[in-house]
Design goal:
Elements (H helix, E strand, L loop, with lengths): L2 E5 L4 E3 L27 E5 L22 H31 L3 H23 L4 H24 L4 H34 L2 H26 L7 H29 L4 H24 L1
Antiparallel strand pairs: 1-2, 1-3
Helix pairs in contact: 3-4, 3-6, 3-7, 4-5, 4-7, 5-6
Length: 284
């Protein structure tokens, strides 16, 4: 095995130059107290075999050196602390962004939430909103018109078409009656402006036109030549009327101080009375 001299003072490994192990120290132990003199900082160490771990001087890492467990744990704790700090900083940044959000947007969301809450309260208490009652009637009758047209397209039997047409006429009659008797007068009193009066006047004229067709259909028969055409035109009248009410009249009424819950209860009660009257007429 090749001898190696280790200079502990300089932290350097080297051999004696000729590749051989020296017989003795150069100073031959002539230093103070019998110690080595010229080679006092030098120690004789056997060289390590290839790929073996060498013992290193103090303060220098040796080959194959690994980080102590406590150092690794400290590093992990440091990384964890940094991650936590970044997360906290991110939350703070998001909070500041939310604080900068326009107050108008926050107000809109608050209004929508309040509307949903009010709607839930009405449903839980059994109250009926007047606008909702009327729009539900619109949806119901429009679905019946579509069903009628489907029968026409499929060459449905006369009896089925006539029965469905009579059902449409009955529902439209009840709906028009509660609007004319209750809703329109209440809306006119609450709006009190020219635009509101014009919308209500147009609605009543449209009702009058629809009533003429309703009477012709109710007295006619599906076997009549123009029966299907009359039902179709009536459907177009109603579609136009519904669009104007829901897009123009109803929004104005909702913005007024009209009590829609109380009005809805009144509409609902009158509607129930009219339906009972129709059933009694059919039974007689």
């Amino acid at each position: 095995m090749e001898a190696t001299l280790h200079d502990a003072k300089r932290g350097r490994l080297y051999t004696n130059g000729d590749g051989k192990r020296p017989r003795s120290c150069v100073c031959k132990g002539t230093g103070p107290s019998g110690r080595h003199g010229a080679c006092a900082p030098r120690l004789f160490l056997p060289s390590s075999p290839p790929n073996s771990r060498q013992e290193s001087p103090v303060g220098l890492p040796s080959q194959g050196h690994t980080m102590p467990a406590n150092t690794a744990n400290n590093a992990n704790r440091t990384n964890s602390t940094k991650s936590t700090a970044k997360a906290a900083q991110s939350k703070t940044s998001q909070s500041r962004t939310a604080d900068k959000e326009p107050s108008k947007e926050r107000s809109k969301r608050a209004t929508k939430s309040s509307d949903r809450s009010a709607s839930d309260d009405r449903e839980s208490s059994g109250a009926v909103d007047a606008i909702k009652l009327l729009t539900d009637d619109h949806k119901e009758v429009q679905a019946l018109f579509k069903a009628y047209q489907k029968l026409v397209d499929e060459d449905g039997e006369d009896d089925l078409r006539e029965q469905l047409a009579q059902d449409i006429c009955a529902k439209l009659t009840v709906h028009a009656t509660i609007e004319e008797e209750i809703f329109y007068p209440a809306a006119r009193d609450s709006l009190e402006d020219d635009e509101g009066d014009d919308l209500l006047d147009e609605a009543e004229v449209e009702h009058a036109s629809a009533k003429e067709l309703i009477a012709q259909i109710a007295e006619g028969s599906a076997a009549d030549e123009l029966f299907d055409a009359k039902v179709k035109v009536l459907g177009e009248y109603i579609a136009h009327h519904v669009k104007e009410e829901e897009k123009e009249l109803f929004p104005k009424v909702q913005q007024s101080d009209l009590d829609l819950d109380a009005l809805g209860d009144e509409l609902s009660a009158r509607k129930a009375e009219l339906l009972v009257e129709l059933e009694e007429e059919e039974a007689s």
